[in-house]
């Protein structure tokens, strides 16, 4: 068992499949069109990737604990709308509006977590309901129209969140660093901290965890709050970068995010999760979307490829799982 | 007379109109392995669930070393040093052996605010414990529970109870679905546990397994403890079987007082 070679151990890791897929994908797109790896295109891919990625990172932890959150897409749209509405009506400064939006998001996460853990309603139903409530609120307060966004350039908040600069030929947004920081922090929490052990136990065998004195409900509520906060944060970043606050933005993101997480190797049933895998999953889907357009496949065909990737990766993961269970 | 480790007195438990336990009294001494026997529905499981905090009792008292305790949850019972190992042992199959051993009590590496587990210490303790409970195969402590056999899982659960100084380890059908070698393994962990100062309650349908390890046999029938001082060295399997299935009280008394196999 211990004398497996380094290569064998590498292949046995759950992140290996997604890694190979990403490499193949990049190689194929680059083969078709060398512009794919141009600095400008890489910068383009990264700009939006990290915004969805922030949500996927939090979702990884939540799904490891055995729950998931369908309301993230609606929060992605709602939070910037709330922030800009508060700012435009002169009630608060932009900074306070930002904090209020995060606070409201945390509250929504708390409600999600409370319904799931205390009323014992499956997270699918709770967060589906919350999706409609939040999206509905966003549409109602704006009458369905995009909010006027003052060009946020110059505000220190905007600079910290999405200020851009060039490293060589690469245009980098500050959000990339937020994403990297979040990936490192959450990866650390999941694999190194005792909280991570509780998250995995909560998803793997909640009764066993409870019997050992682990506060399973507390862990899950905390992760619902984290998921809502990250969705809200990502929505605000996206809104500042594009100078737009549309009550409809973020529609369908919840499924794309969940797809990213499971493609990366996190179990939909809980108990096992990987941040590295999720980062790979994020890149796989975003590179796919960008590459398809670049090599001339109609953008509308994008979903065909995404669906095929999800099915293929699930088949691979289940095969690896069965082989693993057989003890080889 | 010394106060026993655990004393349950006049325990009643009813589910609606069904009386699962009627005035059951039961005790376990320090460093003693007690075999709890009885037919299906005799009340063994209910008695154990009450003691492990899984179900509340209707009336009666539980004393630990002479002090009355109130066990409202399984974590209450664990805090009082009572560890229960069920058939489907309470382990997280996705987590490694070491992570399961320390679940809920993970050692933290300083500085504390980083909340970082001391995985090296966890793995070292786990490696030692695995040796102690007699897993001779070289299994790294980072192996997930999911790839262990049934007997190895029981061993990990027992190791956990031993490491955290549980005074009483309750084993509910620990030898079910185990192979011969694995069963012998579990039985020897139980003996080790007693030798290192723990008490055990051992529940099994297989009377022969019970006879191999226990110091004293307690028999339940229809929610009552009908015999609580059977010495396995002086009583035959057949006699105990007769007590389990039911005989007149006089016959039971005679059988125990006789102190000799009757055939």
UniProtKB/TrEMBL annotation, chain A:
It comes from the Bacteria. It is found in: Cell membrane. The keyword Nucleotide-binding does not apply. Its main location: membrane. InterPro entries: ABC_transp_permease (IPR001851). The chain crosses the membrane at residues 16-33, 45-63, 97-116, 123-141, 170-190, 219-237, 257-285, 292-316. It holds the Pfam family BPD_transp_2. It is a multi-pass membrane protein. Keywords: Cell membrane, Membrane, Transmembrane, Transmembrane helix. This is ABC transporter permease. It comes from Mesorhizobium qingshengii.
TrEMBL record, chain B:
One of its GO terms (molecular function) is ATP binding. Keywords: ATP-binding, Nucleotide-binding. SUPFAM superfamilies: P-loop containing nucleoside triphosphate hydrolases. The keyword Ribonucleoprotein does not apply. Residues 6-247 form the ABC transporter domain. Transmembrane segments: none annotated. Gene3D superfamilies: P-loop containing nucleotide triphosphate hydrolases. It comes from the Bacteria. Belongs to the ABC transporter superfamily. This is ATP-binding cassette domain-containing protein. It comes from Mesorhizobium qingshengii.
């Amino acid at each position: 068992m211990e004398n497996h070679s380094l290569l064998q151990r590498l292949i046995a890791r759950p992140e290996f499949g997604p890694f190979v897929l990403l490499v193949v994908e990049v190689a194929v797109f680059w083969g078709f069109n060398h512009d794919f790896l141009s600095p400008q295109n890489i910068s383009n891919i990264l700009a939006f990737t990290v915004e969805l990625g922030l949500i996927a990172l939090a979702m990884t932890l939540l799904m490891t604990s055995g729950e998931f959150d369908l309301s993230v897409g609606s929060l992605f749209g709602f939070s910037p709308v709330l922030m800009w509405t508060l700012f435009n009506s002169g009630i608060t400064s932009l900074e306070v509006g930002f904090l209020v939006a995060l606070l409201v998001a945390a509250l929504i996460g708390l409600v999600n977590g409370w319904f799931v853990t205390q009323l014992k309603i499956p997270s699918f139903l709770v967060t589906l309901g919350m999706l409609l409530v939040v999206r509905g609120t966003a549409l109602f307060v704006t009458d369905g129209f995009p909010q006027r966004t003052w060009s946020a350039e110059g505000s220190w908040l905007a600079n910290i969140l999405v200020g851009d600069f060039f490293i060589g030929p690469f245009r980098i947004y500050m959000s990339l660093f937020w994403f990297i920081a979040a990936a490192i922090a959450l990866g650390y929490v999941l694999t190194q901290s005792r909280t991570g052990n509780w998250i995995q136990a909560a998803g793997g065998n909640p009764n066993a965890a409870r019997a050992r004195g682990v506060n399973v409900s507390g862990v899950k509520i905390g992760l619902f709050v984290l998921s809502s906060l990250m969705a809200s944060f990502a929505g605000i970043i996206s809104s500042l970068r594009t100078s737009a606050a549309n009550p409809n933005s973020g529609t369908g993101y919840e499924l794309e995010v969940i797809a990213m997480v499971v493609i990366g190797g996190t179990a939909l049933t809980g108990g096992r999760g990987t941040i590295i895998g999720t980062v790979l999953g994020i890149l796989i889907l975003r590179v796919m979307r960008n590459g398809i357009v670049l090599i001339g496949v109609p953008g509308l065909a994008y979903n065909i490829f995404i669906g095929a990737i999800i099915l293929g990766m699930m088949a691979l993961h289940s095969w690896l799982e069965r082989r693993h269970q057989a003890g080889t | 007379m010394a106060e026993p480790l655990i004393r349950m007195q006049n325990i009643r438990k009813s589910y609606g109109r069904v009386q699962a336990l009627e005035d059951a009294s039961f005790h376990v001494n320090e460093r003693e392995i007690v075999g709890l026997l009885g037919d299906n529905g005799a009340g063994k499981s209910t008695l154990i669930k009450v003691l492990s905090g899984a179900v509340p009792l209707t009336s009666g008292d539980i004393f630990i070393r002479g002090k009355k305790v109130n066990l409202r949850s399984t974590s209450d019972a664990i805090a009082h040093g009572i560890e229960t190992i069920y058939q489907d042992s309470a382990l997280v199959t996705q987590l490694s052996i070491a992570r399961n051993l320390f679940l809920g009590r993970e050692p933290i590496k300083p500085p504390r605010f980083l909340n970082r587990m001391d995985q090296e210490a966890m793995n070292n303790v786990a490696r030692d414990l695995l040796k102690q409970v007699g897993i001779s195969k070289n299994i790294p402590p980072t192996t997930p529970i999911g790839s262990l056999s049934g007997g190895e899982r029981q061993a990990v659960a027992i190791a956990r109870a031993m490491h955290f100084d549980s005074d009483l380890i309750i084993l509910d059908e620990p030898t079910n679905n185990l192979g011969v070698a694995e069963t012998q393994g579990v039985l020897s962990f139980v003996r080790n546990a007693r030798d290192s100062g723990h008490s055990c309650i051992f529940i099994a349908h297989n009377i022969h397994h019970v006879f191999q390890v226990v110091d004293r046999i307690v028999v339940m029938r229809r929610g009552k403890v009908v015999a609580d001082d059977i010495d396995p060295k002086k009583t035959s399997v057949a006699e105990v079987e007769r007590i389990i299935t039911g005989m007149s009280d006089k016959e039971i008394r005679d059988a125990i007082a006789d102190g000799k196999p009757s055939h």
